[in-house]
Amino acid sequence: MITKNADNPTKTTEVEQNTLLEIKNLKKYFPIKHGILQRTVGHIKAVDDISLTVKKGETLGLVGESGCGKSTIGRTIIRLYEPTEGEITFKNQNISHMKERELRQDVRKNIQMIFQDPFASLNPRKTLRMILGEPLKIHYNHSRKKQEEIIGELLEKVGLSSKFLNRYPHEFSGGQRQRIGIARVLTLNPDLVIADEAVSALDVSIQAQITNLMQDLQAELGLTYIFISHDLSVVRHISDRVGIMYLGKLMELGTKADLFQEPLHPYSQALLSAVPTPKKQKTVQRERILLKGDIPSPANPPKGCVFHTRCPHVMDRCKQEVPSLLQVKKDHFVACHLY
Ligand code: SF4
């Protein structure tokens, strides 16, 4: 039986043992500084009171337009950013305010991130051997032979040859560089991998190769992914569940099937109406919903429901009251006063 958890509406007792990561009321505000004295005159509310759970072995897609806060969530989970408020629990351990030393010992190995531009994150002066050997050297005390063995295996896993070990990043194509980025992440045998726009810079055919590789690795190694992207088609391909974000808030969270076939939130409906339906699927072709106006600034988000300035169903209540993320059916949550 599914029951709601009072603290976190997206957490159900059935999935509790299965939970790898839990975020509770997470906020990340960036101060806006002004003048010679650099006084704080406001805040960018990049992530504003988000709660969700990630189950072991699943892929949770986080999707939304640029500036919705999806990348900030990823970077806050991995503690590149200090959370402003809220809790991050990973493997039953509260890591929200862990000191760097503890993070390095307990967490950094287990949560890894793949970035959009692997070239920027690969040191151009280091060979593949050095790039992949470095994390192993920092975290383990393997013999040189063992290290070479691990690196060779990893390269094979990501579809590259160990003959490339003495090459530099510029000698590889974009897709190959992303494979190197994935191999580097895998050196530490993580439980959770956060992929932040990991295939956005690649050609469509290469995108498919990389997402397929990620799926194969997930099946083989039991990895859990948070897949952050603005591209709904890619998210549909790889995710088990999907969260839709707008202006730092989670608007809807559900299984891929529920969300893509029957989106409930007016923002999800508009976003998904722009995505072509694959021919083989029987999904009803939706009428395109065009939203009025631009996304408001996260420095000054609208009162009440942050989507109310663009929502075709706006009511008086929406302008005053923030809708909570409520469960409307099993594994399907919506933040909207219509439900
Ligand atoms: Fe639209 Fe109101 Fe629902 Fe917000 S709460 S999405 S404004 S109907």
Please give a handful of descriptors for the protein shown.
339 residues, alpha/beta, eight-stranded mixed β-sheet, 10 helices, 24% strand, globular
Explain what the structure shows:
By secondary structure, the chain is α/β, with parallel strands linked by helices. It is 29% helix and 24% strand. The strands form two sheets. The chain has an eight-stranded mixed sheet with strand order 6-7-8-3-9-10-12-11, sandwiched between helices. Helix 7 links the parallel strand 7 and strand 8. The longest helix has 18 residues. It starts with 18 loop residues before the first strand and ends in a 5-residue tail after the last strand. The model has no long low-confidence stretch (mean pLDDT 90). The site of iron/sulfur cluster has 13 residues, from loops.
What does this entry show, briefly?
By secondary structure, this protein is α/β, with parallel strands linked by helices. It contains ten helices and twelve strands. The radius of gyration is 21 Å and the shape is globular.
Helical stretch tally:
10
Low-confidence stretches: none
Total number of beta strands: 12
What gross morphology would you assign?
globular
Structural class of the secondary elements? Answer: alpha/beta
Question: Strand fraction band?
Answer: 15-25%
Biggest beta sheet attributes: 8 strands, mixed
Q: Which compounds are bound in this model?
A: iron/sulfur cluster
Q: What string gives the helices and strands in order? A: EEEHEEHEHHHHEHEHEEHHEE
The helicity comes to: 25-40%
Task: Output mean pLDDT.
Answer: 90
Q: What is the strand arrangement across the widest sheet?
A: 6-7-8-3-9-10-12-11
CA radius of gyration is 21 Å
* Spatial separation of the terminal alpha carbons: 22 Å
